[in-house]
Amino acid sequence: MNAPTLDAFRTPLADAVRDAVRDLYGIALDRVVLERPPRVALGDLACPVAFDLAKPLKRAPRAIAEELARAVRRPPGIAEVKVEGGGYLNARLERGPFAAALLGAPAPAPARDGKIVVEHTNINPNKAAHIGHLRNAVLGDVLVRSLRLLGHEVEVQNYLDDTGVQVADVVAGLVHLEGVTTADAARRAIREARFPSGTSNPKGFAYLCWDLYAEVGKTYAAKPETQAWRAETLHAIEAGDSETARIAAAVSEAVSSAHLATMGRLGIAYDLLPRESDILRKKFWSRAFERLRDSGAMVLETEGKQAGCWVLRLAGSEEFAGMEEPDKILVRSNGTVTYTAKDIAYQLWKFGLLGADFDYERLAPDWSSGAVTPEEIPPAVRAHPVWRTAHEDGDPASPSFGRATRVYNVIDVRQAYPQKVVREGLRVLGFAAEADRSEHFSYEIVALSPKAARALAERFGEEYRLSPEDEKKPFVEMSGRKGLGVKADDLYEILLERSREEIARRREGESEGAAASQAADRDARAIAVGALRYFLLKFGRNKVIAFDFDEAVSFEGDTGPYLQYSVVRADNIFRKLAERGLPVEPSPGGLAGAAWEDDLWSMLLDAASTDETAERAIASLELSTLARHAFTLAQAFNQFYHRHPIAAEPDAAVRNRRLAVARIFRREMARLLELLGIPEPGRM
RNA sequence: GCGCCCGUAGCUCAGUCCGGAUAGAGCGUUAGCCUCCGGAGCUAAAGGUCGCGCGUUCGAAUCGCGCCGGGCGCACCA
User: Fold this and answer.
1) Among chain A residues 435 through 464, which have CB within 7 angstroms of nucleic chain B?
2) Does pTM top 0.90 for this prediction?
3) Tell me, what's the pLDDT at A324?
4) Percent of chain A topping pLDDT 70
5) SS3 A479
6) Stretch A138-148: mean pLDDT, rounded?
7) A594 pLDDT band (50/70/90 cuts)?
8) DSSP tag of A551
9) Can you give the pLDDT at residue A445?
């Protein structure tokens, strides 16, 4: 038998209340709101309907509620309905049977029709990832995990802009500043993480590029004539078949591989890496171009400052009303195509509406980047097949990609406008339904507090020192161009270092065999990943994270390790029971009719709401509610085992009840941690 | 200028979608708890004009309008 959810009781109870209202007062309510009250002592399900009736009936809510409480026909499983507060109907469940049923396995979500494509990460493959990129990837990954829990088929795409300005700038730096002028020389620089000048970085090529990219930015600013490098390089990359294009290919391949490793060790995997170079090769844009032109929505400007450009007319759309210049340029007057234009073609492809497809090849990631070693990659990530679009000779046996029924694009809020343009592009082509199912999962950026920037300057050098005017701001945006930011791998390593110290302190004096040190290493990594992922998830998505080192590396209180600690302690309790020869599994029969303490009961209700929480998180795209829910549950459990000892409890019935609570908690917390991508340490 | 987001305890944030019971956490502060399933934990205390004003309502942190402060966006960048 499957574990029940509160929804199983909500609907019948709402019906019963509605019936009572109709019979007593002749009023037909279209809906009755049932909610979980904030405090369990007030009832398991609260129904504020009496307040709504107070006005039409011109009577006190309390009196109405009293009448309703007497008139409601209690559905099965509801022990009583009584009035509390100013006029709430509070329904209490039959606790014993509910708890016994909860011991059953959670019902797997029924498979849903259609496929959802989630695009996330999308880091320009020209430098190491920073923690802003990490927020994107973690949000995207938890979105994917939640959708899968709810029964959706999901395809994860990580788009690579391998022919863009950012890659071009790094290539220009390689060629003009570092004297790396051949693809062979580039490959050597990548392999050795060293430039011919001797500059090197033990964390790998992506780290070298971080500094080089900043250097190029400085050069452009200092000597404006060097800015011509960008256009030349960009042009060479787009044309292909040149040494410059081959250098660019090697750079973007190496850096995106480093990104895969960075994300991989945090448990983040991808199904497909679509490459912009393949969108160009496959002429996706010309297909989209013809359709947009034929639809009349895109026109060639013949006068004004946009003369010679193909623009998407958006003035008629209410979303764009009030803008000074609502039209969006898709093809520049020099004939080159904007990113947004390519994105429209890509979005059409995601829905299977383009009438063209990529070729695909299986990628064998090497998972090592200088900052990351292959052993750090969790087996689940390593075993996950990764495909990318192929330049030529695709694998005929590749799976089918795209053809989504719904698409989520995980992109920060600053790109809200181009995302709207993409959606509008679909709409003007007559794909209104697909436009409605194109969702921009927008979130705020990770910025640096002046304090964090000072810490960076202490740790990594004076180039992180903020200008006096930036010092006065509440936070400053990270900038790859300026080289200002906390690199993802650096933060992970600071966390790992800290978690190793904590573990060493706690395991002092224990045997130091190879097995023990391996276990300690595994646990330290689990804790570092848990802390990092939780930190990026706990804030609401519209909240700017003003990054602060002390907060980010904390392992106490509202943190990932707090969640991990709760499951480790639960397992210790089960172990202790086994040691004492006591039952380690609860007896469902012993739960019925038992007197349930409110705090135990409150935990069960919370534990029973994992799926419901995931539903709400998806509906609102507010994933921090999942983190909060897990924290609340862990907190309840930590309080519970302090107040209600299990192994030491002499009364078998009481012990059985507590054991049931602990088991149900353990199971649901495991599901939540999986949902959040937070690994379970063996011990802490 | 127009648009979006943020403003809740000393600090960092939940709660706002869909109005309702005594506005909650974490950190920090103060005072406690390891002969009792490990203290990355637990107990308790102190700490609030929910940015301001007006309105709607029996009832507003929550809805509407107007302000104030901060951030972001409004490219032939992405």
Assistant:
1) 444
2) yes
3) 66
4) 99
5) strand
6) 98
7) confident
8) H
9) 96
The whole-angstrom separation of Cα A200 and Cα A162 is 23
Residue A568 and residue A681 in contact, taking contact as beta carbons nearer than 8 Å: yes
In single-letter form, the type of residue at position A156 comes to V
Cβ A587 to strand B below 7 Å: no
Window 533-562 of chain A: CB closer than 7 A to strand B? 538-540, 542-546, 548, 551, 554-559, 561-562
Parallel, antiparallel, or unpaired: how do β-strands A45-47 and A88-93 relate? antiparallel
Query: Which nucleotides in chain B lie less than 7 Å from some protein C-beta?
Result: 1-6, 12-15, 17-18, 20-22, 25-28, 36-43, 57-59, 70-78
Strand B within 7 A of A602 CB: no
**Measured CA A639 to C1' B30 distance, in angstroms:** 22
Question: Can you give the pLDDT at residue A321?
Answer: 64
**Alpha-carbon gap, residue A319 to A324, rounded angstroms:** 13
Predicted pLDDT of residue A7: 84
Instruction: Scan for tokens 């089960």, then name that residue.
Output: A574
Which residues numbered 267-326 in chain A sit less than 7 A from strand B, measured from CB?
A: 305-309, 322-325
Place of tokens 């000048």: A197
Q: Is the pLDDT of residue A322 over 80?
A: no
Nearest to A676 by CA among A566, A542, A536, A556: A536
Reported as half-sphere exposure (CB side, CA atoms, 13 A), residue A358 has a value of 27
Radius of gyration, alpha carbons of chain A: 29
Give A196-226 as a 3 state SS string: CCCCECCCCHHHHHHHHHHHHHHHHHHCHHH
Nucleotide nearest to A576 (CA to C1'): B37
Side chain identity at A629, as an amino acid letter? H
Q: For residue A682, give every residue at least 6 positions away whose Cβ sits within 8 Å of its Cβ, in sequence order, or none.
A: A519, A522, A523, A568
Judged against a pLDDT cut of 90, whether residue A464 lies above it is answered with: no
DSSP secondary structure, A337-358, as one string: B-HHHHHHHHHHHHTT-SS---
User: Quick one: pLDDT at residue A595?
Assistant: 84
Across the beta sheet with A328-331, what order do the strands follow?
A298-300, A310-312, A328-331
Banded model confidence at residue A505, pLDDT cuts 50, 70, 90:
very high
Q: Is the CB of A580 under 7 A from strand B?
A: no
Q: Is the pLDDT of residue A36 over 90?
A: no
Whole-number Cα distances in Å, A495 to A297, A451, A457, A528, A530:
51, 18, 18, 5, 10
